[in-house]
């Protein structure tokens, strides 16, 4: 192999971008390369995706059919129709694990060192991760919607409202991605991250309106549940889909639409700067 | 050569982790087009130095220019001109070899077609074409290291950092890497090679900086470093360990410096001025003293001994074993 090395034509990289516009274009191009990288991971490890889909589908079946027969709704209505928006949001929450593990895996391996020694945009690694996870979330949502339609769930307020509800759910996923990126940077060990995420995510779903209407919980628990960011997205999407079980007397329940936009923005405002600071800290 | 022409010019680099200095005033000048060895034991600061010079790590004091550009103020210019291959293969192991090289090419801002063509060339050159579309996970350690090296060479870098490139490789793969390094340098690339393998530095590097506890303790060619502890040495192995004392007395009379004793191998050695005179004298004197020698010989000092001499301690134990062969 060595004899051929000298024949390699000398390639020269384009000079660094000088203007803000050129920098932005490169940041977008580099971010897209990293997005494709993460998508290629999904293609190369489809079994991970299968496992990842099994959980929400299992929840639909177990809660919808086994426990669901004994579940009551405050205002009446089909429990499975109540359940599906909750499962949508819950699946987005569990995406936290995939994001954090992916980031931790990168940081633990030497590949991030190579990225950082190259003339690529600093933002590309995290931007690519968050874009790829969003694309993945769209695929997951499509699958879940089909799954929901099969078990009798439907949207009742027209396609516009339904898409708005999906938009809110993806906004939550986007915010959660950045929580995951931060987690992955703070705990740079994929195994540890996997162990942390489930115990953190499970109580968050249990203490929400995903499976049980907060009105049916003890007062204090109901209040915690209604203020849960996950609940806001679920309540707002139930309202937009026209599914039963939204509403309630508390301020949080009355303003779920506002909170479903507000909570993710708050999370982003906290975790985007934290993640970027942490990423830059890798050079210390 | 002024420092501006140098491929690498570092002055007074300091990097502190808590109370400990990983680098404690490191000065390093590497001229263009050579392999420069950075030799030192684990924890000497080799990797810290490479990470600073390749813009991965900030430092507390000093300054460094690589390929003529400041590693802090002109990091992007530096990054366009360097390649980095570390101790662990820095590739995406989920992706295939080809996907890796195309991705890195794109991140160097090559066009899509150019990146693909370059990936194909490198796969061919590094004998990876047959595994181009397999996931990196299925690669052997040697293949992964070759892919890593290929990724460092997408742009034919002006300065290539090789941080212990052969650690953990089998002898065949190690020779492959050595060959690749030699032909790169023939093509004009400057290589900074860190290693704890004395043999590797001896084989590849024109100049060697010996570093210990974060600073350069000696610098020169391999021969110069060896010369620092004198020229030829006479070495006597006695049959009976009890005769080490008398043998040492004889060697001391012949040698130009205090003899070194190694009780485990029953070995006495000392530097000598005149090779053949020393040898015949040793044979006669040992016989007179009634010492039964198992082996008497002359040899050049190893880089290992130079290292011991310069730093006051041996290189890593496994390294000594490595180079003993």
UniProtKB/TrEMBL annotation, chain B:
InterPro entries per the UniProt record, alphabetical: AAA+_ATPase (IPR003593), ABC_transporter-like_ATP-bd (IPR003439), ABC_transporter-like_CS (IPR017871), ABC_transporter_ATP-binding (IPR050763), DrrA (IPR005894), P-loop_NTPase (IPR027417)
Official protein name in the record: ATP-binding cassette domain-containing protein
SUPFAM superfamilies: P-loop containing nucleoside triphosphate hydrolases
Membrane topology: Peripheral membrane protein
Keyword flag Cytoplasm: no
UniProt-recorded Gene Ontology molecular function terms: ATP binding; ATP hydrolysis activity
Cellular-component GO terms for this entry: plasma membrane
GO biological process: daunorubicin transport; doxorubicin transport; response to antibiotic
Record's keyword terms, sorted: Antibiotic resistance, ATP-binding, Cell membrane, Membrane, Nucleotide-binding, Translocase, Transport
Entry's family note: Belongs to the ABC transporter superfamily. Drug exporter-1 (DrugE1) (TC 3.A.1.105) family.
UniProt source species: Jiangella rhizosphaerae
PANTHER family: ABC TRANSPORTER ATP-BINDING PROTEIN (PTHR42711), DOXORUBICIN RESISTANCE ATP-BINDING PROTEIN DRRA (PTHR42711:SF19)
